[in-house]
Design brief:
- The complex is a heterotrimer of chains A (about 300), B (about 325) and C (about 240).
- Chain A is an all-alpha fold and about 300 residues long.
- Chain A has one domain.
- Chain A is built from 11 helices and 2 strands.
- Chain A has a two-stranded antiparallel ribbon.
- The relative contact order of chain A is 0.20.
- The C terminus of chain A is likely disordered.
- Chain B has about 325 residues and is an all-alpha fold.
- Helices cover about 80% and strands about 0% of the residues of chain B.
- The radius of gyration of chain B is 20 Å and the shape is globular.
- The model of chain B has no long low-confidence stretch (mean pLDDT about 80).
- Chain C is an alpha/beta fold and about 240 residues long.
- Classes of the chains: A mainly alpha (about 300), B mainly alpha (about 325), C alpha/beta (about 240).
Chain lengths: ~300, ~325, ~240
């Protein structure tokens, strides 16, 4: 019984971080119809900025703030300077279909190389603002610490804030309209290009928080967020790329599922498990578990 | 049958061309030093790997980052066969092709319903996770990997014929055959069907093409080629370890293919050349700038990424297309 | 120079020359019916006027200012709204959200609220369904919503692309009635593109007949209706 609760709680924690990543992926997908693989790169860069601030100031939340700003700027920058140029140039021939995908992958590699050259590949750490020792219940120590609680709480707050943004504000409405029907949005007077860039900025900021939380729980290298990207992507697919709620649900399901495999089967199969989940969902319910049955448009 | 005679002539001419190339390579291989011969073998290996990408992405329009993983599958299959069954080398290579074709078929079936970013993301997951998977199973040799020793060149080639020349010879022959076969496939009904699917899957279906089946076929063939390349890589470096098949490899392959023209088969040699040359250049730059370690790890990646981005933006269909556009503009004036 | 003045407009789709030297003018407050058979280029005309498509040559001026080549979102701020073909509502949003969309560019939210109330007066059915998702609306209701959204932006020039498409005759009548009513009340200038030539000309002041990308006739709407040659060719009787 105890193990079940532990597994659930840890699954929720990892799932929460994946949720941020998958949310960022869905945000960008919905506004640009591009899966931004460079998301991990943006988050990585932002996290390294956060690392710098954290090592100088020792204040975690300040570092997070800087990371969010950095992430938002990088996100906006990528959309403004990179994606627009890309769509202008690569829009014909056999490569038009594959160009955006390859380009964001290239960008990921570029950012990673830049980060590696600037900071090196050694493991870096960011001090967690709260204890990472497990809670003690009587004589047993749970593998669940105040940091885990903090992660779940932070992610929940972000999710609520985003939900409010999207459902209750004019900006959110503009973002949704631009994503669903860019032409109609333009005809209604929405500056869709600017709105899209804002969407990318928000996604960048969200990804930055994911990176910071992940690092507080683990460590930081130019490769440490790769797994986050992959699982974030899988979560987004599982939830159905069209739905933000789905992205979150998918991530939590994935997080719990992977933790179950970890605890009951063994580390070796964690990754295979994740991959199997992805393939299974894509085969059985390609629109994701939350989709209303619309086709999977690439 | 006029058309059959024509086809036979074309094929005969092609065979002649490839045999000629084979001779040229052999002579060249004799004249250059060991390092260049080794690099030649690597170029040949990349050429085979890039062919798999041209087929899969250039022709059937499926962006996959899994070809590095398929290379690993082929390499492991070859090594396991050679080490455990003590078969002749050609059989090990054959197993590489078959096993990776099988895995390719599996992956392809799962992937057939996917498109664009879904496919890329799934194969990205595979590429990221493969080293981890390889690390877990002891029969795969864990991190240090398995040894793949094709043995010494036959004695009748004489004392001068070094190990690396042998590798170069084998790799080049395999590369030539692979390109020849692939080129025929691409120019056949298969190639045309793939291009139809790539252009407009729905229209192709309406025209009676089984898009899914063809996509799976593309995956299978592409994986077979990749597996073959993997086995050749194993031969060149003498071992099969997860460290040789990282995400960076898949990235590099996609870059090489885009640079050389993603649907251009002749470009694969150029692509292979570029992929071998980049680490060299990075090395030179790193040595000039000092701090070789850090630079060496990340500079090749940087160059590759920059090249990939530039080429995707400015020459998404390879330099050939830009050249053609340029010539057309000139003709119009 | 007031109203809409289109002069020698040429538009191409790649190699295909879709519109040839289109010229016509609409006085402020008039309703111009642009009619012609399928593929004549009517939709292309509207899309070019509203900035969704580029022209190759020619001018189009609204109230003396050039409007070609301006982005649609900027034209909205100048008082030009385009209701595009095919019931341009966003099905994933609610009715209310679709309407708010029309005024989202405006800083003054009170004005938007006022406009929405006016639209609901005009189309009471929308008022009943404010919080429903737009994909639950019938065809006619969606068209009302699309027009309503355009009206929320308080345009002075309204471009309507085939509002009758896919609707039942009774609904078409209602919509055309409503269009006629509000355009007079609000003093709008309207360019109404239609295949349903009869109904369109009945509420129009002037008619512009387009065939294969060229203007073949312009003039007073009632005269065009009564011209036997045109009736035979374009109205079918």
């Amino acid at each position: 019984m105890q193990k079940v609760i532990e597994t659930l709680l840890i699954g929720l924690t990892t799932g929460s971080i994946y949720a941020l990543m998958s949310l960022a992926i869905v945000l960008v997908w919905r506004s640009t119809r591009v899966v931004n693989f460079a998301q991990a790169g943006q988050a990585m860069l932002a996290t390294y900025v956060g690392f710098e601030i954290a090592s100088r100031s020792g204040v975690f939340w300040l570092a997070v703030l800087f990371a969010i700003v950095a992430g938002a700027l990088v996100g906006a920058g990528v959309d403004y300077f990179f994606m627009r140029v890309l769509f202008k140039h690569a829009n014909s021939g056999p490569a038009a279909v594959v160009a955006p995908v390859i380009a964001t992958l290239g960008l990921l590699g570029l950012i990673r190389s830049f980060v590696g050259l600037t900071w090196g590949g050694e493991f870096k750490t960011i001090e967690s603002p709260v204890s990472t020792d497990g809670y003690t219940v009587g004589s047993t120590t749970l593998p669940f610490s105040p940091l885990n609680t903090l992660i779940i709480v932070t992610v929940s707050i972000i999710l609520i804030a985003l939900a409010i943004l999207f459902q209750r504000t004019n900006l959110g409405l503009a973002l949704r309209a631009s994503a669903y029907a860019p032409e109609i949005a333009k005809l209604a007077g929405i500056r869709t290009a600017r709105t899209r860039t804002i969407g990318w900025a928000i996604a960048g900021g969200v990804g930055a928080v994911a990176g910071m939380l992940n690092t507080a729980n683990n460590f930081l290298t130019p490769y440490s967020l790769d797994l986050l990207l992959v699982f974030g992507f899988i979560a987004a697919v599982v939830g159905g790329l069209e739905s933000m709620v789905g992205a979150v649900v998918g991530a939590l399901v994935l997080g719990i599922g992977l933790t179950i495999i970890l605890n009951y089967v063994g580390t070796s199969l964690v990754f295979i498990g994740g991959f199997a989940v992805l393939i299974l969902v894509l085969l059985i319910k390609p629109d994701g578990i939350m989709a209303k049955g619309k086709g999977r448009r690439a | 049958m006029e058309s059959w005679r024509k086809v036979r002539d074309v094929v005969r001419k092609k065979i002649a061309l490839f045999v000629f190339l084979g001779w040229v390579l052999l002579i060249v291989g004799d004249r250059v030093d060991e390092l260049r011969v080794y690099q030649g073998a690597q170029i040949a290996m990349y050429t085979i790997a890039l062919t798999s990408i041209v087929l899969l992405t250039g022709y059937s329009g499926q962006v996959s980052l899994g070809n590095g993983a398929m290379m690993a599958v082929g390499a492991y299959a070859a090594a396991l066969t050679l080490n455990n069954l003590q078969t002749p080398i050609w059989f090990a290579f054959l197993m590489a092709i078959l096993v990776s074709a099988l895995f390719g078929a599996l992956l392809g079936s799962a992937a057939a319903r996917l498109a664009g970013p879904y496919l890329a993301g799934t194969t990205l997951a595979l590429a990221v996770g493969l080293p981890a998977i390889a690390n877990q199973f002891s029969f795969l040799g864990g991190e240090p990997g398995l040894i793949f020793d094709v043995g010494f060149p036959p004695e009748r080639f004489g004392e001068e014929f070094t190990q690396y020349k042998w590798f170069f010879w084998i790799a080049s022959c395999i590369a030539l055959v692979a390109i020849f076969v692939t080129s025929n496939i691409l120019q056949s009904r298969f190639g045309r069907t793939w291009r139809a699917i790539r252009g407009n899957s729905l229209a192709a279906e309406l025209a009676g093409i089984h898009a899914s089946r063809m996509k799976v076929l593309a995956f299978t063939m592409s994986s077979a080629l990749a597996g073959l390349a993997g086995a050749v890589l194993a031969m060149n470096i003498g071992l099969v370890a997860p460290g040789a098949f990282t995400l960076a490899l898949s990235f590099g392959l996609v870059t090489g293919a885009v640079l050389a023209g993603i649907s251009s088969l002749p470009g694969v040699v150029l692509g292979g050349f570029i992929l071998v040359v980049i680490p060299e250049i990075a090395d030179v730059i790193a040595n000039r700038l000092g701090d070789a370690d850090k630079l060496n790890s990340y500079l090749p990646g940087l160059i590759v990424s920059v090249l990939l981005i530039l080429s995707v933006i400015y020459t998404p269909n390879g330099p050939g297309e830009n050249l053609r556009k340029h010539l057309r503009k000139k003709a119009a004036h | 120079m007031s109203g809409l003045v289109v002069t020698r407009l040429n538009v191409s789709h790649g190699a295909i020359h879709a519109l040839h030297d289109i010229s016509f003018s609409v006085e402020p407050g008039q309703l111009a019916a642009v009619i012609g058979s399928n593929g004549a280029g009517k939709t292309t005309l509207l899309r070019t006027l509203s900035g969704l498509k580029d022209s190759s040559s020619g001018t189009a001026q609204w109230e003396g200012r050039e409007m070609l080549g301006v982005k649609p979102e900027d034209l909205v701020r100048r008082g030009i709204s385009h209701v595009s073909e095919g019931k341009s509502v966003i099905p994933e949003l609610t009715v209310k959200e679709n309407l708010v969309l029309g005024g989202i560019w405006r800083a003054n939210k009170a004005e938007t609220q006022e406009s929405i109330e006016q639209v609901v007066e005009l189309f009471p059915r929308l008022g009943e369904r404010m919080s429903q998702s737009a994909d639950t609306l019938s065809g006619g209701e969606r068209q009302m919503l699309a027009i309503g959204r355009a009206l929320v932006s308080r345009p002075k020039l309204l471009l309507l692309d085939e509002p009758s498409l896919g609707l039942a005759p009774l609904v078409i009548e209602q919509i055309f009635d409503t269009i006629n009513t509000f355009r007079t009340k609000m003093g709008l200038t309207v360019v109404l593109v239609e295949q349903n030539a009869m109904s369109a000309l009945e509420i129009a002041d002037i008619g512009v007949i387009i065939n294969l990308g060229r203007v073949v006739a312009t003039g007073n709407a009632s005269e065009l209706i009564n011209d036997p040659a045109l009736r035979a060719a374009y109205l079918g009787y």
